[in-house]
RNA sequence: UGACCAAUGGUGUAAUGGUAGCACUGCAGUUUUUGGUACUGCCUGUCUAGGUUCGAAUCCUGGUUGGUCAACCA
């Protein structure tokens, strides 16, 4: 695990608005000048790149101010939560490169939360409501007009105490009663209209089993959990802004440590969806291969796609933090992986769409070995020997019979360099009856082998190749964006985001590769020279390698075509 | 027809009353045995109307636009 990554980009001098708040607090000596954050996922789904923004923020801030970050599972709804998710969440956070100070669960605090509820009842600030869910909803009113007080609102403390204890004891059925905070049914903030604190749920919890049949609501659990852990700055997304008065109300009325809730705008990326519900739907309805499908914005999906932790951390840094709604260009994420992989990924040659190139004047039995550089960005990476022979595979797109003037590659009568080998000249092409090109015939200049003086001759292009008799085959999975429109959620009547799915987001092909790879561990990143970055997929076997395309190299030629 | 929040190039984010900067994208060029990388240059911006001030992206007021809130979800 990478635990000690120093700031990957140049040190940022300006502060985001949260850091500004924290520095102000530090200056004032608030919280004894300590910083303690938390990352509070609900274990009901896999983490995605939006969570990565939050993780990097919370852990990053704590690190910057010599503070701590807790991992706390917000597990107050047993119906939706599962241990499968807590394991994947921990794995993803570690993979991203972070280690938490302590691992907690909101369910650890059920007993304390219950005691505090009793305390609020005794203070006349909470009551048991026997109304049905429909009645409560109806009486809450709408944002533009006040709600109506429940007929049970003014029960005696004794009666409330008795009822609430019996709720806990399991005497009542699901949904028959709730505990509500007595605040203000006329508040313009809906969350202050006597919010539900506890509901009855005879359900087994992944940690507390059947100990409880009443479970606290988010609003009643979150702030107090923060408080118990001594959190100083409780950072969450914008939609919780309207919950803040409630967060504050519970802390104040319970007279407990009062962390400061700060909201920031969640991450959105175009051509993708970020809601857990929708990602779950994509998985359940099998529009993708699973949570870790390389087209998914989940952390396990990105990992399988070949994204590195450093590239995602850098992305989180670059996008910044603010309160304004934002949509980040997918190209920024791609930039971040390319930047990281350019430095780290070893190069190899692969031919995805092969066509035979025959060097007529090269001896048919001859095999030479040429030296290929493993990574031009890293001299330490060294070089490898590649077999060269008379018949080669080259990329179909590297030849054009009637080429425009801006096409630099192979065309009849023109020379190109075969990378690390010789300069060849196209002499003729073989075609079948239908006029399809079967093979390209070239002549080579023996004086132009890389390293020889003549090899410095100016040619317009250098192309990659593979010795046909030595090349191995591999499965390569090419990906395009999962959705074909920038905002998949923008749909006309009767349509859903699923109608915006890109039918061509996955293409599986057979490709030729070099005979050897230095590493074949899952997730190993390579650059296929002149094509893009690829990584080894978990579906690889001893006899067949499977590669996932991480991202294509920039291609100015493809653009001007 | 309520409350709260936000508004800076195509996108994101700085400027904390004093020269509107950075990154991505796009475009043009230099270098290059990857049409990659690196490097250089260019395009494009303070929602609007007032006010305060010597001076406003920044403070105030009105408007406009966008977002959030009416689960016994988080």
The CATH topology of the largest domain is given as Rossmann fold
The class by helix and strand makeup works out as: alpha/beta
Give Rg in angstroms. Answer: 31 Å
Mean pLDDT: 96
Sheet with most strands? 7 strands, mixed
Number-wise, the strands total 25
The first-level CATH class of the largest domain is given as: Alpha Beta
Task: Please state the overall shape, judged from the principal axes of the Cα atoms.
Answer: elongated
Helix fraction, binned, reads: 25-40%
Distance between the termini: 44 Å
> What is the count of structural domains?
3
| Total of helices | 13
Runs in which pLDDT lies below 50 for 5 or more consecutive residues are 1-11
Strand order of the largest sheet: 10-23-24-25-21-22-11
At CATH level 2, the architecture of the largest domain is 3-Layer(aba) Sandwich
Proportion in β-strands: 15-25%
Task: Let me know the CATH homologous superfamily of the largest domain.
Answer: HUPs
Provide keyphrases for this structure:
561 residues, alpha/beta, Rossmann fold, Glutamyl-tRNA Synthetase, domain 2, Ribosomal Protein L25, Chain P, seven-stranded mixed beta sheet, 13 helices, 26% helix, elongated, disordered N terminus, RNA-binding
Give a written overview of the molecule:
Mean pLDDT is 96; it is low at 1-11. This protein is α/β, with parallel strands linked by helices and 561 residues long. The chain has helices at residues 17-28, 49-64, 83-96, 110-122, 133-140, 157-169, 218-228, 244-254, 276-284, 299-305, 309-319, 330-344, 556-560; strands at residues 36-39, 68-73, 102-105, 126-129, 178-181, 196-200, 214-216, 233-237, 260-264, 346-348, 350-351, 354-359, 368-373, 383-388, 391-395, 415-418, 423-431, 437-444, 462-463, 466-467, 472-479, 506-513, 525-528, 532-536, 546-552. The radius of gyration is 31 Å and the shape is elongated. The chain binds one RNA strand of 74 nucleotides through helix 5, strand 6, helix 7, helix 12 and strand 19.
């Amino acid at each position: 695990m990478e635990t000690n990554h120093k700031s990957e980009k140049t040190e940022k001098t300006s502060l985001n608005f949260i850091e500004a708040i924290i520095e102000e607090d530090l200056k004032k000596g608030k919280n004894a000048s300590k910083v303690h954050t938390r990352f509070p996922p609900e274990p009901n789904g896999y983490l995605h790149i939006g969570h990565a923004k939050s993780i990097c923020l919370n852990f990053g801030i704590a690190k910057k101010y010599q503070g701590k970050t807790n991992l706390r599972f917000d597990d107050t709804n047993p119906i939706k939560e599962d241990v499968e998710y807590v394991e994947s969440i921990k794995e993803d956070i570690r993979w991203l490169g972070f280690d938490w100070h302590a691992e907690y669960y909101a369910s650890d605090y059920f007993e304390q939360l219950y005691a505090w509820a009793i305390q609020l009842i005794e203070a006349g600030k909470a009551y048991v409501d026997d109304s049905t869910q429909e009645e409560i909803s109806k009486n809450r009113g709408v944002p533009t007009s006040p709600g109506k007080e429940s007929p049970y609102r003014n029960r005696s403390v004794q009666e409330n105490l008795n009822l609430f204890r019996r709720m806990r004891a399991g005497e009542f059925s699901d949904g028959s009663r709730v505990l509500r905070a007595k605040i203000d049914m006329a508040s313009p903030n809906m969350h202050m209209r006597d919010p539900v604190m506890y509901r009855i749920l005879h359900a087994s919890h992944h940690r507390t089993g059947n100990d409880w049949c009443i479970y606290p609501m988010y609003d009643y659990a979150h702030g107090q959990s923060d408080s118990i852990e001594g959190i100083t700055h409780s950072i969450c997304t914008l939609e919780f802004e309207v919950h803040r008065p409630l967060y504050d109300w519970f802390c104040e009325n319970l007279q407990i440590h009062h962390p400061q809730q700060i909201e920031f705008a969640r991450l959105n990326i175009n051509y993708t969806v970020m809601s857990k519900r929708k990602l779950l739907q994509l998985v359940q309805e099998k529009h993708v291969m699973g949570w870790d499908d390389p087209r998914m914005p989940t952390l396990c999906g990105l990992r399988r796609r070949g994204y590195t932790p450093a590239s995602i951390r850098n992305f989180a840094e670059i996008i910044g933090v603010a309160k304004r709604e934002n949509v980040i260009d997918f190209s920024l994420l791609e930039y971040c992986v390319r930047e990281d992989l350019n430095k780290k990924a070893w190069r190899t040659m692969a031919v995805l769409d092969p066509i035979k190139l025959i060097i007529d004047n090269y001896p048919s039995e001859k095999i030479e070995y040429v030296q290929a550089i493993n990574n031009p960005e890293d001299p330490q990476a060294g070089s490898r020997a590649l077999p060269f022979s008379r018949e080669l595979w080259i990329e179909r797109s590297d030849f054009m019979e009637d080429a425009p003037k801006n096409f630099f590659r192979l065309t009849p009568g023109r020379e190109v360099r075969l990378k690390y080998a010789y300069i060849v000249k196209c002499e003729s092409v073989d075609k079948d009856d239908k006029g399809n090109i079967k093979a390209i015939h070239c002549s080579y200049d023996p004086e132009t082998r890389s390293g020889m003086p003549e090899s410095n001759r100016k040619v317009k292009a250098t192309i990659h190749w593979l010795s046909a008799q030595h090349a191995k085959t591999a499965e390569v999975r090419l990906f395009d964006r999962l959705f074909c429109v920038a905002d998949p959620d923008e749909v006309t009547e009767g349509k859903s985001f699923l109608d915006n799915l890109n039918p061509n987001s996955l293409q599986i092909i057979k490709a030729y590769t070099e005979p050897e790879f230095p590493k074949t561990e899952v997730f190993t990143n390579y650059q296929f020279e002149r094509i893009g970055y690829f990584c080894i997929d978990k579906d690889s076997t001893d006899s067949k390698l499977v590669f996932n395309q991480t991202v294509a190299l920039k291609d100015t030629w493809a653009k001007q075509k």
